[in-house]
């Protein structure tokens, strides 16, 4: 969490350079300077890239639906429209994935670029393009042509207000043509943000190195509570090379193995911490990083619905950013044929052709993060330019990288790799050349070496093995998903979805519902991925990957519904290790309870799905509140405590009880886990819910000794007193007037210029604050970092509910809106609706699209 603070404060140095631009923006020419970047949404535009005509319909919220005669023209038009709405977002993302941020923002981003270049995301994307199917490459090429057709029409500030700022920061920067590799590199960024438990891996090692006993560290990462929160799939087995399962409750067996990797020496553990801190500088591409990242999705069989066909709901939980991660769109061949098979509406990413989540005329699908452990850190022994493996030297592979710096000198450094992957620890040596403070290298005895760090140095190193550093076929999968028409073709499309590994839920117009887990997931030798592994022992190497046909799959379960919410995907009887670090299942259990109640009533609709998506129950509070009610407090704290006596555990924005409880919870975590320090503070969500639940039954646990004399009950009283004092100062002396929404506010933040600390800059680029309900690990998952305050950091980044019986009755909402342009009317027009739990129509048929259109743009090929 401390790394998150550092990362965004570094951007504040950038904002100091935009004062000149602000002067223009607020002057008489300011409105023209802003408005000239707005897209043309009506009339006709001639695009030389097109072979035939394309039509773009936009509804009252500016959401585009695109029609064309060929798939190539369809994706050319999508590229053009994405660039119209979101080109700064696209450009910032590609500069990040290429490790070129210092070209935009100068010296302060050298560290970020060095780590990104060391991993080599773009290099992997370049290799990936060559592996893809010919049709996929053609679609990526066409999308790039559409983006470049937009760039050919505009320049500088005409591309967006951010480019006017860029003209001050980096006047020599030239916006290059878009390429297919720019699109593919985005998949690496998405995989990075959803990579699994790597942060837990480094935290465990750091806590152990800090002197906390291993047993106590393990208490902070308890095994998944399989009996209380059943996995997605239970009771499965592999028969004839394919996984077979029904929904079940699992066995409840302890899954908390610690692995048997040797702990690195103290100084090497510090190296792991340095690597972790360096990686924290990488801007999270799916919005501000947080333990609250997750997602909900579920499907309900037609036997329980009003239409008689399935319902599907999805709301991925990602970081809150301006503009939203998602871009709503429809992609329609004017006549659906084998040659032009696309007729799909849903959510995509600006910069990537196709639709990622949505539906076509036959099927619908949703995503949540499977969260398997697909990234391992290896501690390496380096001697004489080689890694020692099983007592023998293996030469390192090397390459040179150069980071260009706006207003500064280039930085050239060497990237070295072992059999496990790039040496992230070498990034420190490269950064030392810029006098960015780095510790000296670690010798083979675990002590600091005498000489300065350099790329050829001996000692310990930290290498990264990660599935996304090998080229894959996920781009093929996206187009295959868009064109799939039954579960068989859907599964074949999912087979190609390699990274990031996901939970896929499925529904179709024939009445089927299903679940499939795709992804490239390593099979380990020794170790379980929970601790850094010794690279010098080949027994810890990966031994291949889990075959797709052995990954979990379920069709038409007897229960009539399937829920995925980042809980354990499988029980402990499953044949392969996916991870030990699941989300702890509170959201999935709550959704299951609500669906059980809804199924009893019958006749479910998309409105019922939306109601479940907005459920605000803090299930973790059920274990804590009875103990708080027994605690000995007086004065304002006692009056505030009384609010909890009849609290329904719903964290609505106007709830006084929710305001007090969450303040108590934040202070309780600080008091109980003070030994962890600010860099490794436990999160406020499902993990801490389970840890504290267990500790409440152990009043003599050493964890209760940290903050107050008298053990558990004294600590609970201390947390309530601190919370009452804080809220009295912030919200006044009457607890009945406290409101959760006054603390728990959402300000959707511009990822590159929105955290400057300079009011005018933030006003220009950030969204308007709104009060939010929900909280961390509730179904309405508006996460917050308790070390930073109560402000929302992660959100349901969109919500979607689809009725397979009437596709035009589908509903959706985005966090912000389709436009990324400052002051555009559709930049944040969906945020107030999102905060209230409202949705807007998601038309699908051409009749419905045309009926809801407010603007029509015709794109014509050049004469």
TrEMBL record:
Q: Which residues form the active site?
A: 295
Q: Cite the cofactor comment.
A: Binds 1 Ca(2+) ion per dimer.
Superkingdom per UniProt:
Bacteria
Q: Name one Pfam family in it.
A: Penicil_amidase
Primary enzyme class: hydrolase
Annotated binding of Ca(2+), by residue: 201, 373, 376
Its BP terms in the Gene Ontology are:
antibiotic biosynthetic process
UniProt keywords (A-Z) are: Calcium, Hydrolase, Metal-binding, Zymogen
Which cofactor is recorded for it? Ca(2+)
Q: Which InterPro entries match?
A: Ntn_hydrolases_N (IPR029055), Pen/GL7ACA/AHL_acylase (IPR014395), Penicillin_amidase_A-knob (IPR043147), Penicillin_amidase_dom1 (IPR023343), Penicillin_amidase_N_B-knob (IPR043146), S45 (IPR002692)
Recorded hits in PANTHER family, A to Z, give: ACYL-HOMOSERINE LACTONE ACYLASE QUIP, PEPTIDASE S45 PENICILLIN AMIDASE
The entry's family comment says: Belongs to the peptidase S45 family.
* Protein's recorded name: Acyl-homoserine lactone acylase QuiP
Record organism: Streptomonospora litoralis
Q: Which gene encodes it?
A: quiP
């Amino acid at each position: 969490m401390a790394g998150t603070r550092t990362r965004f404060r570094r951007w504040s140095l950038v904002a100091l350079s935009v004062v000149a631009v602000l002067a223009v923006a607020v002057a008489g020419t300011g409105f023209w300077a802003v408005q000239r970047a707005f897209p043309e949404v009506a009339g006709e535009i001639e695009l030389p890239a097109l072979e035939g005509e394309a039509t773009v319909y936009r509804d009252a919220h500016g959401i585009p639906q695109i029609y064309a005669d060929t798939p190539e023209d369809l994706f050319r038009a999508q590229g053009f429209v994405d660039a119209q709405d979101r080109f700064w977002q696209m450009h910032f993302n590609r500069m990040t994935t290429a490790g070129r941020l210092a070209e935009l923002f100068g010296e302060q981003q050298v560290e970020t670029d060095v780590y990104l270049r060391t991993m080599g995301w773009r290099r992997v994307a370049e290799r990936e393009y060559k592996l893809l199917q010919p049709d996929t490459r053609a679609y990526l090429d066409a999308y790039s042509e559409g983006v470049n057709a937009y760039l050919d029409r505009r320049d500088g500030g005409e591309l967006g207000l951010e480019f006017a700022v860029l003209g001050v920061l980096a006047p020599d920067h030239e916006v290059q043509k878009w390429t297919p590799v720019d699109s593919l590199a985005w998949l690496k960024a998405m995989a990075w943000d959803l990579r699994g438990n790597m942060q837990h891996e480094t935290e465990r090692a750091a806590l152990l190195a800090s002197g906390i006993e291993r047993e106590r560290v393990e208490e902070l990462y308890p095994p998944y509570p399989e009996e209380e929160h059943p996995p997605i799939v239970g009771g499965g087995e592999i028969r004839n090379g394919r996984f077979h399962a029904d929904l079940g409750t699992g066995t409840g067996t302890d899954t908390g193995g610690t692995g048997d990797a040797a702990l690195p020496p103290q100084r090497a553990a510090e190296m792991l911490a340095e690597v972790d801190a360096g990686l924290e500088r990488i801007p999270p591409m799916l919005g501000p990083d947080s333990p609250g990242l997750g997602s909900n999705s579920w499907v309900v069989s037609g036997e329980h619905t009003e239409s008689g066909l399935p319902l599907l709901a999805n709301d991925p939980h990602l970081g809150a950013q301006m503009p939203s991660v998602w871009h709503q769109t429809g992609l329609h061949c004017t006549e659906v044929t084998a040659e032009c098979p696309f007729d799909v509406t849903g959510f995509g990413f600006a910069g990537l052709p196709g639709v990622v989540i949505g539906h076509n005329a036959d099927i619908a699908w949703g995503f949540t993060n499977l969260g398997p452990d697909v990234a391992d850190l290896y501690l390496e022994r380096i001697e004489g330019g080689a890694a020692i493996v099983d007592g023998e030297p293996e030469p390192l592979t090397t390459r040179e990288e150069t980071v260009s710096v706006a207003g500064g000198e280039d930085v050239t450094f060497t990237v070295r790799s072992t059999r496990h992957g790039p040496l992230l620890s070498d990034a420190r040596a490269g950064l030392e050349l810029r006098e960015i403070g780095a510790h000296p290298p670690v010798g083979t005895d675990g002590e600091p070496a005498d000489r300065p760090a350099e790329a050829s140095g001996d000692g310990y190193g930290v290498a990264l093995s990660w599935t996304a550093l090998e080229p894959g076929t996920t781009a093929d999968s996206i187009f295959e998903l868009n064109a799939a028409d039954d579960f068989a073709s859907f599964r074949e499309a999912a087979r190609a979805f390699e990274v990031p590994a996901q939970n896929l839920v499925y529904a179709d117009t024939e009445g089927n519902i299903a679940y499939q887990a795709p992804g490239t997931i390593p099979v380990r030798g020794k170790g379980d991925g929970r601790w850094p592994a010794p690279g010098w022992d080949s027994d810890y190497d990966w031994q291949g990957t889990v075959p797709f046909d052995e990954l979990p799959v379920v069709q038409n379960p007897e229960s009539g519904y399937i829920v995925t919410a980042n809980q354990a995907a499988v029980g402990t009887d499953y044949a392969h290790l996916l991870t030990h670090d699941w989300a702890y299942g509170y959201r999935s259990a709550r959704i299951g309870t609500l669906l059980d109640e809804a199924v009893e009533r019958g006749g479910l609709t998309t409105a019922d799905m939306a109601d479940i998506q907005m459920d605000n129950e803090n299930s973790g509070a059920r274990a804590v509140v009875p103990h708080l009610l027994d605690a000995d407090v007086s004065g304002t704290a006692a009056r505030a405590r009384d609010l909890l006596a009849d609290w329904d555990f719903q964290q609505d924005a106007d709830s006084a009880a929710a305001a007090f409880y969450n303040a108590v919870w934040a202070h309780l975590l600080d008091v109980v886990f003070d030994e962890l320090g600010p860099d490794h503070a436990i999160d406020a969500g499902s993990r801490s819910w389970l840890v504290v639940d267990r500790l409440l039954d152990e009043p003599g646990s050493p964890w209760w000794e940290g903050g107050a004399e008298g053990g558990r009950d004294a600590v609970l009283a201390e947390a309530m007193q601190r919370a009452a004092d804080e809220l009295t100062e912030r919200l006044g002396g009457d607890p009945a007037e406290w409101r959760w929404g006054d603390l728990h506010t959402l300000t959707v933040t511009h990822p590159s210029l929105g955290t400057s600390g300079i009011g005018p800059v933030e006003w220009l680029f950030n969204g308007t604050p709104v009060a939010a309900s929900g909280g961390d690990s509730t179904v309405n998952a508006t996460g917050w970092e308790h070390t930073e305050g109560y402000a929302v950091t992660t959100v349901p980044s969109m919500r979607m509910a689809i009725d397979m019986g009437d596709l035009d009755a589908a509903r959706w909402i985005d966090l912000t809106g389709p436009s990324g342009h400052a002051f555009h009317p559709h930049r944040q027009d969906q945020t107030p609706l999102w905060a209230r739990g409202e949705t807007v129509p998601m038309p699908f048929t051409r009749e419905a699209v045309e009926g809801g259109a407010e603007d029509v743009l015709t794109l014509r090929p050049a004469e």
